[in-house]
Amino acid sequence: MEKSDDEKLTYRSIIKRIFLSPRSKGEMQNDAVVPLTFPSAPPLLPEEVFIQRVMESCIFKTILAAVVGCGAGALFGIFTASVDPVHTIADPAKVTVQDVIRETRQRAVIYAKNFGVLGLMFAGFECTLETYRGKTDMKNGVLSGAITGGLIGLRAGIKPAILGAVSFAAFSAIIEHYLRG
């Protein structure tokens, strides 16, 4: 698509004006480019400020992580119940729909509790560390992963606690690196 003579002339005159013609300081001030500004947003209402503070609080983040963890755990439990064979039924040859539903419900509840506790602990420790340190960086996630993994593994002993802390910290570091990357 070729430009018309008027467009070429305008383009040429702009280039000459910017780069080639010497101008005095007064001329330059008259040609100042004023950027377009957008009107600022109106100030937040007290209710909006309250909601914003609540959503940024550690308690809200922790509860939200627990609820989302429960939901993800329930879905994961339903999935694993559909893939794994039914273990709680005495005679596998006589499996009924009721038995499958009961097994699926039990697994969904167990996984929901576990994932909910993990989300609660991780988010709680991360937000607490972020508040204490006054920084939002990768260390918060790695440290909270180590604390969470260590406490979860501590139920089985010292060696599992160390392994859990290292594993959760490494997993948290990988996730933080990927998300912040």
From TrEMBL:
Molecular-function GO terms, alphabetical: mitochondrion targeting sequence binding; protein transmembrane transporter activity
InterPro entries assigned to the protein according to its UniProt record, in alphabetical order: TIM22
Superkingdom: Eukaryota
Bilayer topology term: Multi-pass membrane protein
One cellular component term from this protein's GO annotations in UniProt: TIM22 mitochondrial import inner membrane insertion complex
Name of the molecule in the record: Mitochondrial import inner membrane translocase subunit TIM22
Family: Belongs to the Tim17/Tim22/Tim23 family.
Compartment list: Mitochondrion inner membrane
Annotated keywords: Membrane, Mitochondrion, Mitochondrion inner membrane, Protein transport, Translocation, Transmembrane, Transmembrane helix, Transport
Annotated gene: timm22
Role noted for this protein: Essential core component of the TIM22 complex, a complex that mediates the import and insertion of multi-pass transmembrane proteins into the mitochondrial inner membrane. In the TIM22 complex, it constitutes the voltage-activated and signal-gated channel. Forms a twin-pore translocase that uses the membrane potential as external driving force in 2 voltage-dependent steps.
GO annotation terms (biological process): protein insertion into mitochondrial inner membrane
Assembly: Component of the TIM22 complex.
Membrane-spanning ranges: 63-83, 161-179
